[in-house]
Amino acid sequence: MSESIKRVVLAYSGGLDTSVILKWLQVTYGCEVVTFTADLGQGEELEPARAKAELMGIAPNHIFIDDLREEFVRDFVFPMMRANARYEGDYLLGTSIARPLISKRLVEIAHATGADAVAHGATGKGNDQVRFELSCYALDPDIKVIAPWREWDLTSRTALIDFAEKNQIPVPKDKRGESPFSTDANLLHTSSEGKVLEDPWEETPDYVYSRTVNPEDAPDAPEYITIDFEKGDGVALNGQAMSPATLLAALNDLGRKHGIGRLDLVENRFVGMKSRGMYETPGGEIYARAHRGIESITLDRGAAHLKDELMPKYAELIYNGFWFAPEREMLQAAIDHSQEKVSGTVRLKLYKGNAGVVGRKSPFSLYSERHVTFEDDAGAYDQKDAAGFIKLNALRLKLLARRDR
Amino acid sequence: MSESIKRVVLAYSGGLDTSVILKWLQVTYGCEVVTFTADLGQGEELEPARAKAELMGIAPNHIFIDDLREEFVRDFVFPMMRANARYEGDYLLGTSIARPLISKRLVEIAHATGADAVAHGATGKGNDQVRFELSCYALDPDIKVIAPWREWDLTSRTALIDFAEKNQIPVPKDKRGESPFSTDANLLHTSSEGKVLEDPWEETPDYVYSRTVNPEDAPDAPEYITIDFEKGDGVALNGQAMSPATLLAALNDLGRKHGIGRLDLVENRFVGMKSRGMYETPGGEIYARAHRGIESITLDRGAAHLKDELMPKYAELIYNGFWFAPEREMLQAAIDHSQEKVSGTVRLKLYKGNAGVVGRKSPFSLYSERHVTFEDDAGAYDQKDAAGFIKLNALRLKLLARRDR
Amino acid sequence: MSESIKRVVLAYSGGLDTSVILKWLQVTYGCEVVTFTADLGQGEELEPARAKAELMGIAPNHIFIDDLREEFVRDFVFPMMRANARYEGDYLLGTSIARPLISKRLVEIAHATGADAVAHGATGKGNDQVRFELSCYALDPDIKVIAPWREWDLTSRTALIDFAEKNQIPVPKDKRGESPFSTDANLLHTSSEGKVLEDPWEETPDYVYSRTVNPEDAPDAPEYITIDFEKGDGVALNGQAMSPATLLAALNDLGRKHGIGRLDLVENRFVGMKSRGMYETPGGEIYARAHRGIESITLDRGAAHLKDELMPKYAELIYNGFWFAPEREMLQAAIDHSQEKVSGTVRLKLYKGNAGVVGRKSPFSLYSERHVTFEDDAGAYDQKDAAGFIKLNALRLKLLARRDR
Amino acid sequence: MSESIKRVVLAYSGGLDTSVILKWLQVTYGCEVVTFTADLGQGEELEPARAKAELMGIAPNHIFIDDLREEFVRDFVFPMMRANARYEGDYLLGTSIARPLISKRLVEIAHATGADAVAHGATGKGNDQVRFELSCYALDPDIKVIAPWREWDLTSRTALIDFAEKNQIPVPKDKRGESPFSTDANLLHTSSEGKVLEDPWEETPDYVYSRTVNPEDAPDAPEYITIDFEKGDGVALNGQAMSPATLLAALNDLGRKHGIGRLDLVENRFVGMKSRGMYETPGGEIYARAHRGIESITLDRGAAHLKDELMPKYAELIYNGFWFAPEREMLQAAIDHSQEKVSGTVRLKLYKGNAGVVGRKSPFSLYSERHVTFEDDAGAYDQKDAAGFIKLNALRLKLLARRDR
């Protein structure tokens, strides 16, 4: 708090918490605040944020409201999906992957407005502070980052609301009490954590879910869809060409309807503790399975297995906030190199929480019916080759066995 | 075929194909045949195999019928599950993991009966020949392995049936025509491949499934179960202690009922081609998810992430037939070392193809509500530590950014 | 041998063995032979190969003699050096990296001359047959590859010489007896194996070395040199700009003089056995150390460690012959991505077998004296940050320790 | 500094810096100090430390002087050497591997004396603070760790000496000025860094080296030695059985004499900056090469390559201070599993900075002259097997090539 700040760009949702932060920055640092509100597909109206910012004295040209949905999906979600990234085996990284984009815009707006600092509303216990700050520092090593939750003394809900009231910040009725859990949402997912979810033995209450119907309430009839891929990225749903964000939104609708993409997970945070989260990634789950499906016929084994070996590290880097680190970019270069022929069509069956691949075809298919067939293969494969293949693969094991008996 | 063989142990199911092999071995090598029929939980009567072997002139003391179900699950399936092994992201390795055990018994019986060779009924295009032979050579480098499908000229169904009829081998009516697909079954799974499954764009016909009901026909109400783990292995279902094979069998019943564990996959064979398989792993799928669930609260992040990084290689080794290779054993040593405190209870919800973890608890839990809470944590965690943590993690990125701008 | 071959491109050195192969191909396959002799810097005259080929009836337009030295170093050696590749910790892959280039030219010449096959002189026990054939098949899946050493019955030296004499192939006097060891040479290295080297307990006799002086006979005074790098590749020696092959040749002279780059190794062949080889890589050893030196100040830790983790697999792929495989190309894409700023100057001291980096500088250096200094760092680094860094890194270990005590 | 400390165990060398720390702890925390001085083979008299501690008022039963040399080599250096660990390709981790042992004793002594804290003399910029503290927290999550260099204001040499003089701490004449570099020593190595070494372009001055003669001054005649290994650990030199520490000390003498094990390195610290260090690891370098030599004939390829793939991560864990982390223990379990038959004898030639393996033999050798020979192998290896081996390894590459042309 001792640093002198002239102007700070705040990641501003328009909600109570970031409004308090806005005021706190003005009060504490005596600095100008620039607000940045991003549409990442979280499904909220953004214009109210403008009105609120204006009310708090922000100059109109210092209020930034950006629709980042296409950039989000095209430059962040899709590249990550090319890697089949899942953190700790399951989590599709919906929150993690949004942070670098928000950070990128924070820094861009700082440069555009001559600000010397950025601020975010992430707490001191979570991963998001790390993701925001590593990204910002990687993009501008001289930027100052203010993390009010780590600095201020508004550590209880009451203190926060007191501060709001003292500073004429409207407090919506439903924000007076403690929220029963905390959420983050964007086009890829909604995450929920905290409070009612803190006991990992207790099942997640139904009211926590907001993006998917309960599979038990989903349609009794399955629905079949196709997704077309070009060079590793989705380009069409049921034969209809769509932009990245449009495609993901359409898959979200399908996933919501069929109760797909719910995940109840205890995960390991980068800051060293375990946390329990509930994720809903309806479209992302369908997309991820479809991507593996198209890879299964278009990727060579060597490429596929290398990708599988690299994936845990790649996912960990994104989870930990190292999107803008050289090693993530190196892995991306390897992954992208593999996607040149990952084109074709995948057919999936959606049914009550399930999204299963049931068919895949491609002009670049490496699947050779002629080789694999139980029928006469017209000489495509000489079974006698297998004898030599096995003999030489066995040689070292035989030498070992001779030694060790 | 030029080698002189005195006595050969044949992996013998009692079916038409291995009966033809039995006779073919007698005719071609002029050798004694010892039959070995294993109960791996494939769900077939084994005693008929004895009668058939006797009919073909096998001496009673050369007919081996073993119940290997407990050994299979305890010493092969469970160790593999400790690794969370899935080949190419999905396949639970149900066929791959049975081959080393069958090979081990083939070699043991060869030693017990003074046989100098073993024989198996795997074709020259598949992975199983590799798995059988690598395992046998690793256990006895001097054993001879006969793979009739790579040697003989019975390359069409007609030729096979002709041979059977010429040699008084009864041919069941339903075996006269081509089977519409080929299967392998054991306590862990049933796999199906070939024929009607050869076009990867065509959905698997419903009649291919034998181990699970169609999720659409599964009960409309979810069922909750608990699985208890001790040191990484399942020990009880719904609080009732069970042996490994009993537990897996009980989970199979649950999985069957709820349509869990179906997988339609195009995979990369070790011999270099892609194949399309349909797998049903009802109990295994439930078990695998439960194991990850108990690990999520009992494994440290460092251990968990290392396991995730090692898993693809471990799964590939098993898929490729290297169970008895030193590198698989080294990985197993690492994995087993991590399981000491992987004990506790997982609660799952089974519903129409879904098996989701909804709760987990353990006396060895590393999940600390005190640390993660949004509430006052009584000093368990100092949020200001995060600032230094981020600063030093960012240092190299800042140095990079300064250089590269 | 049963296949009908019309025209075959033979990798032809002009020596006795490949001359016998040339004739054997003519006799056995009744086909036309195209000879291909490559200058890879092995240090032998190539024109005699032309005369010999003409003598054996090869049409002048079917005799190819190519100087591939620059392509070899630029497109094969340098990319590999960017990876710091060493097989089994030590071997700089001098033979392995030449095979894909020879294969590439074999296939190109086959296409240019309408040949349907290629042939090489590698034996059936070694790695080179694998490297040649995998490369050829990857470049032309329909090419036929003839490996005479696996086919013919000239399995003894006597039989080979008999065949030569019967077919009017001149046999040099020194080739009548057995050679005491076998060698392969190119601009990167000379390897020796076999015969006198077959007992891994026996020290390599001095007469085996041909590319380096014995360190004991090297100059008593050290010599200092500098190598300049641009984007990961060497571009100048002692400030003098040089092409890739010229630079490597100049380093070879220096390495020879100072007895640098001798390696006595027992290695694991891809075909399953161990072999003992003696390698001399004088310039390559110097270059490899210099490359690590320039990386040490220009590569970020994340990039450097990722490279170190990927290297063993990358080296194994090259050793095993998978240069033209997608996974090698993916790894190359990752590695090359890291080399953008690997530019600067390395200073080395050469002395009696040692080539040590003693200085490195770069306009893109990430080394920050300001940060690392024991002196006052003017606020570049706040030591108190370390406390938080350590606390959060320790958190999971503390939680573990609390559980496990 | 705000915490109340009753009794603290200080890692105490007896030198000026830790004497100042001792006094500073007494003054600042008003607590009792327990001193712990370890003989790790650093080559200094330890008894003077006792006298100094007594002079500063430490009770005799609170002065601990332990000879840890055998434990150091047996339980830390040798296990690490089994892994062939080198950080960033070169560094043998001589400082890193000593820190966990010192930490272990600090915590043990804290428990024995009822101390609630430990203190170390590592600065806030280096890796050692991390290594000490992670180890201590892993062994006792409730221990407090005091790092005076991060807390106090004695940030200049003058301030430190002033404090010493004010507090009657004798200041040796040669400590009045700035030391031209900083060192750490133990039985495995001596490291030097800082001051005259801070410019990575400047060659290390000769006076920095203390453990090895300049290779130019080493004997003109090579010396041959043998090292015997049992289960991965060295047990004898030139046929004479020795304890771990005795063996390493004897190798140090040999390495010193022949100028072996000097390393000039720019490395990446865990805290995010690069530093330049000069290491002398005379015996360790010889030992490390010998260990690889015995592995080369006794380890199977699968085990050897897995070890090479795991090594960079293992070395990074030790460098970063995670010796007592589960993932290091898991890797150790895998590595140790591989060493069961790593027994035999290695012969090395030591000459002016070089330590090359020239011979290796073992009763457990996997090297098979019969297989590898160029001579008649009596049927040990059928060269025709190679054809099938290559064909099936090529199959996927052919399928790719057909698709992509």
TrEMBL record, chains A, B, C, D:
Keywords in alphabetical order, please: Amino-acid biosynthesis, Arginine biosynthesis, ATP-binding, Cytoplasm, Ligase, Nucleotide-binding
Please list the residue ranges annotated as the Arginosuccinate synthase C-terminal domain. 181-399
Q: Which GO terms describe its cellular component?
A: cytoplasm
Gene Ontology terms: biological process: argininosuccinate metabolic process; L-arginine biosynthetic process; urea cycle
Please list the GO terms describing molecular function.
argininosuccinate synthase activity; ATP binding
Locate the residues binding ATP.
Answer: 11-19, 38, 121
Q: What is its EC number?
A: 6.3.4.5
Q: Which residues bind L-citrulline?
A: 91, 96, 127, 131, 182, 191, 267, 279
| UniProt superkingdom | Bacteria
What catalytic activity is recorded? L-citrulline + L-aspartate + ATP = 2-(N(omega)-L-arginino)succinate + AMP + diphosphate + H(+)
Q: Which InterPro entries match?
A: Arginosuc_syn_C, Arginosuc_syn_N, Arginosuc_synth, Arginosuc_synth_CS, Arginosuc_synth_type_1_subfam, AS_cat/multimer_dom_body, Rossmann-like_a/b/a_fold
- Family annotation (Pfam families): Arginosuc_syn_C (PF20979), Arginosuc_synth (PF00764)
Please state every residue range assigned to the domain named Arginosuccinate synthase-like N-terminal: 7-170
Q: Which residues bind L-aspartate?
A: 123, 127-128
Query: Carries keyword Translocase?
Result: no
Show the HAMAP family listed in the entry: Arg_succ_synth_type1
Q: How does it assemble?
A: Homotetramer.
In the record, the note on similarity to other proteins reads: Belongs to the argininosuccinate synthase family. Type 1 subfamily.
Q: What is this protein called?
A: Argininosuccinate synthase
Name the source organism.
Sphingopyxis indica
Recall the taxonomic lineage recorded for the source organism.
Bacteria, Pseudomonadati, Pseudomonadota, Alphaproteobacteria, Sphingomonadales
